[in-house]
Design goal:
Structural class: mainly alpha
Mean pLDDT: 84
Strand content: under 5%
Number of helices: 9
Radius of gyration: 20 Å
Number of domains: 1
Order of helices and strands: HHHHHHHHH
Number of strands: 0
Oligomer: single chain
């Protein structure tokens, strides 16, 4: 069943509703598509900065110290490097959007054809990595806002669980919380990006409105 048959004009609310329904229908697969890339990235990042992560609650105090002083082997300069590296990691995640959108589109098309989509199948042999042109920027903006809010809520909730974690294992817990929060939130924005383009271009994704 095609994603976007020769369709009527779709309103922004219809596009958003369609995107959310497809996301919930295929959520486990879309989550895994993102998680297979993003979670390892955050675990590697947290491992590399594991000493800085271990003193997360002391960052502000350490930054107020003279540069030659350190707490548990961590100086203020290392915290600044950690924050700059985190911004670079976030930029790298944004650069992955075309690939994530392409894998998302493949999974949704597989579902639309009545087959069972998988994360492995969505990534396998993927070649077209162009960023889709949204059918409606408003729809994508709303879905992205919802994704950011969901991701923030999940990360805040996850962070409250980090307090009893031993310092030696804190990097694992923090990497998982950050990676999983993004993996849970991103599918909503990615699906809105893909569905809008498909409907506008009369692709496979919009037949069952």
């Amino acid at each position: 069943m095609p994603l976007a048959a020769s369709s009527p004009d779709y309103t922004r609310s219809m596009l958003l509703d369609r995107a959310f329904r497809l996301t919930f229908r295929n959520f486990s697969t879309l989550f895994l598509i993102v998680a297979t890339i993003v979670v390892p990235l955050h675990l590697i990042f947290s491992f590399y900065f594991r000493d800085v992560v271990a003193v997360s609650e002391l960052h502000s105090a350490i930054e107020d110290l003279p540069g030659y002083l350190q707490v548990k082997g961590v100086k203020a300069r290392e915290i600044r490097v950690y924050r700059s590296a985190f911004l670079a990691l976030s930029a790298a995640e944004l650069a992955l959007i075309p690939a994530l959108a392409a894998a998302t589109r493949r999974a949704l098309e597989t579902d639309a054809r009545g087959l069972v989509p998988t994360a492995t199948g969505a990534w396998k042999g993927l070649r077209e990595l162009r960023l889709p042109r949204p059918g409606s920027w408003t729809t994508v903006a709303v879905a992205t806002g919802c994704s950011l809010l969901l991701g923030a809520l999940v990360e805040v909730a996850g962070s409250t669980l980090l307090q009893p974690v031993p310092e030696t294992s804190l990097w694992i817990a923090q990497g998982l919380v950050q990676g999983l929060s993004r993996s849970l939130a991103a599918p909503f924005a990615l699906t809105a990006l893909v569905v809008g383009q498909e409907i506008k271009g009369k692709g496979v994704l919009a037949s069952t409105m």
